[in-house]
Amino acid sequence: MSQNKCVLLVVDMQNDFISGSLAMKDCPAKQDGNHTIHVVNKLTSLPNWDLIVYTKDWHPADHISFVTNAYKFERHEESTIDPTSAEVYDKVVFNVDGNQRREQVLWPPHCIQSSWGSELHPDLLVANGSHIVTKGMDKHVDSYSAFFDNQHLQETELRELLQRNNITHVFVCGVATDVCVNFTVQDSLDLGYQTYLVEDACAGVSWQNIEVQVKKLVEKKANIIQSDQVSAELEKLHNDKTTVTVPCNHD
Ligand code: VGL
Ligand code: ZN
């Protein structure tokens, strides 16, 4: 038997990103998350995943990333934009928690804990035995990656979950390609996992940014793959008898 073990990470396929306040179809790239749902469902239906994990952006109502909350946080002297007049997509710099610098892109309020917008989209298949990882609960720091917050101050339980399941290969899909998917792929690569971006199973915010970020991921040795190639890749990995090292295992 091969020692290769593969996880599918389904990033933030929640109502707000599909049809709610931060719907991908209304973002500059105009990519429809409804289409993404069906591609993702085909992926989760493949029989040979060793683990499937869904992530949820899970913010308190007073979160720093919401444009409507910007005026409540202190402006850092380096911020070129005044938080009291800032708009969606503006990047502001805040001073939080006793003089800590926080660069923050502002978004419409989204994925507020336990709201309709924070629920996984009803058309999304939730695989038996899968896990859910939440992120973005600290009001003072955003968390695009499913592994760490944007400041790398805190870690979610994702890495431990992957370690417990002896995962060697990480496949990532979901939204947004250039935001949470991108940061999750980056951290997965940095943690030493062989990492795949399933390109057509994603939808993103901005074309220019998608292009820039995907190019960077390729430079970092991410594999860009299309959804119809995943089944054959899983089979190949599971039949591969060469010894692999499992990253980040402490035992
Ligand atoms: C995301 C913007 C703000 C994402 C989350 O899931 O990509 N984007 N929060
Ligand atoms: Zn968010």
TrEMBL record:
| Residue ranges occupied by any Isochorismatase-like domain in the UniProt entry | 7-227
Q: In which pathway does it act?
A: Cofactor biosynthesis; nicotinate biosynthesis; nicotinate from nicotinamide: step 1/1
Entry keyword set: Hydrolase, Metal-binding, Pyridine nucleotide biosynthesis
- Asked if the Swiss-Prot or TrEMBL record annotates the protein with the keyword Zinc, the reply is no
UniProt keyword Calcium, yes or no: no
According to the UniProt entry, its GO molecular function terms are: metal ion binding; nicotinamidase activity
Which superkingdom? Eukaryota
EC number, UniProt record: 3.5.1.19
GO terms classed as biological process: pyridine nucleotide biosynthetic process
Stretches of the chain forming a coiled coil according to its record: none
A Pfam family matched in the record: Isochorismatase
The Swiss-Prot or TrEMBL record describes its family as follows:
Belongs to the isochorismatase family.
This protein is called: nicotinamidase
